[in-house]
Amino acid sequence: MDSIRLEWLNYGKDWVLNAGEIIKIRLSEKITINTKSHINDLVTNIDREIEDFFKQKVSLIKDHRLLGEEGDFVNDSDGYIWILDPIDGTTNLVTTGRDFVISLALYHNGQPLFGIVYDVMRDELYHAITGEGAYIKDKKIPQVNSDLLLDDQVIICDIKEIISYPRVVDLIQQSRGHRRYGSAALEIVHIAVGRAGAFIHMMVHPWDIAAAKIIAEECGLKYTRTDGTSVNVFEKGSSLVAPEKLHQQIVTICFS
Amino acid sequence: MDSIRLEWLNYGKDWVLNAGEIIKIRLSEKITINTKSHINDLVTNIDREIEDFFKQKVSLIKDHRLLGEEGDFVNDSDGYIWILDPIDGTTNLVTTGRDFVISLALYHNGQPLFGIVYDVMRDELYHAITGEGAYIKDKKIPQVNSDLLLDDQVIICDIKEIISYPRVVDLIQQSRGHRRYGSAALEIVHIAVGRAGAFIHMMVHPWDIAAAKIIAEECGLKYTRTDGTSVNVFEKGSSLVAPEKLHQQIVTICFS
Q: What does the pLDDT look like over A96-118, one tens digit per residue?
């Protein structure tokens, strides 16, 4: 990656770490909040504050734009676009107080340059540069074992997949078990570092996956729609992420 | 609690912390292990090593017995019985490397004296003394809010409950979401500290719940079978754990 893009990556990592600190401060202030409406307000306020933080940062870079869950609508993929989810896992933010991430990626003319996923409470920063590998806390993540098979792997999906696709139930029963943590970006990077075997989701938005997809692919994972077709992150749709052979098993069992 | 029992509690906490250190050392040695049979062997070996560690400790206390997953069969509840799960969440141990606990409780003539649940990788030790409250890292856990209702709470259950009880699907759809972490004892203490609203499981063993049940009840949670009847931890069966009103909602929606 050329030096100017490397500088943007370093900007991005700094912003994400700073935003994590803001979230931790806001969470430590929530002690006095205990009604439902107050909790929802808290989440909305933090989400907005973090998005505004990034909006201000990106606005300082000439010709760069921001695409975010709460943000302006970007209806093309021309030029440099930062894709942000200020908090992926907002329910976790107010319930478990963990398992939520900040997701940030930079794309150029629709092509991925780098992605950053920050597990705030564990202080684990994942990032990947297209073509140059993925890292956790700046340590290279090894390539996944593409020979892994279903019977020894845990499957991550939401109850929506289980309800909609009875064959997903068959799949899970043939697997080592089912997990659900409640943050798509976090769950995808879990697969990248080998903490689970596959991630299946019927409807993810650009900001949920823009960064995690780069990290997953740089670790050698296959990342497609559930029917095996390629994913344009600027369009919402399904995601199926797994090592090569397991990916094929899942398509065969559930979606063919 | 009288001083001798308090001493046993302190023994138990020390043992659990030491056992956690052993597990961490064994995990750090696993780097070279990469075939399925080796991984399963690793889990079996750590499980046995930890159980043997506790067996040796309990054997030094006169007239105390140990009931454990891998251990001797205890077919009565007379006298002092320690109930142990050396590792609850063995699949997590080898996949995520987190979200597994050591569970240890002491019962006397079938009545609970205290329970300890140790989240090894987060270094979070939960304990409770019957009638005297529950603690996380020796800090008192506040009573749960018994007025919490379904629409604002996350439900923890396994896919088995979802498959067997279509009404559990209705329940989850009315809730704030579904989570599954893969360790019953850990999931129950999550409810105790308010990280989720309810735990539902169709088949738990004495060692899965002996400690977590004490912690849950000392936090004001209602802990029953799914049909609302009381739980004898020496018998395997279902578990439904939630704050009072939510518990009633779940029985009504799913199990009445």
A: 889 999 999 999 999 999 999 99
The CATH-assigned architecture of domain A3-140 is: 2-Layer Sandwich (3.30)
CA A250, distance to chain mean position in Å, is 21
Query: How far apart are the C-alpha atoms of A119 and A186, rounded to whole Å?
Result: 7
Q: Distance of CA B58 to CAs B15, B54, B73, B213, Å?
A: 10, 6, 15, 21
| CATH entry, A150-255, from 3.40.1550.10, 3.40.640.10, 3.40.190.80, 2.40.110.10 | 3.40.190.80
Answer whether B215's CB lies under 8 Å from B143's CB: no
- CB contacts, 8 Å: A172 with chain B: 159
Mean confidence (pLDDT) of chain A: 92
Instruction: For A113-136, write each residue's pLDDT tens digit.
Output: 999 999 999 999 999 999 999 999
Distance between CA atoms of A223 and A202, rounded to whole angstroms? 13
Residue carrying the six token digits 């008192």: B140
Q: B173 has which bridge partners? A: none
- Residue B163, chain A, CB below 8 Å: the answer is yes
Query: For chain A, first and last CA: distance in Å?
Result: 39
Q: Regarding beta strands A237-242 and A222-224, do their DSSP bridges make them parallel or antiparallel, or are they unpaired?
A: antiparallel
Residue of chain B with shortest Cα separation from A163: B169
Hey, what are B7's tokens?
Answer: 């001493």
Query: What is the SS3 assignment for B163?
Result: helix
Using the Cβ of B205 and the Cβ atoms of chain A, whether some distance falls under 8 Å is answered with: no
Interface ipTM above 0.85 = no
Identity at A69, one-letter amino acid code: E
> Which residue type occupies A80?
Y
SS3 A142: coil
Sheet holding B222-224, edge to edge: B177-179, B154-157, B198-204, B237-242, B222-224
**DSSP strands (E only) in B17-152:** 64-68, 80-88, 101-108, 111-119, 124-129, 133-136, 139-140
Residue closest to A196 by CA, chosen among B42, B182, B45: B182
List, for residues B4-32, the tens digit of each pLDDT value: 999 999 999 999 999 999 999 988 876 44
Residue type for position B79: G
CATH 3.30.540.10 region(s) of chain B?
A: 3-140
Any B CB within 8 A of A220 CB:
no
Place of tokens 């989440």: A43
Token pair belonging to A127: 């990032």
Q: Where in chain B is the domain with CATH 3.40.190.80?
A: 150-255
Determine contact: A152 vs chain B, CB below 8 A: yes
Residues in chain B predicted with pLDDT less than 50, given as ranges, are 31-33
In Å, what is the CA distance from B38 to each residue of A187, A246, B34, B50, B93? 26, 20, 7, 18, 14
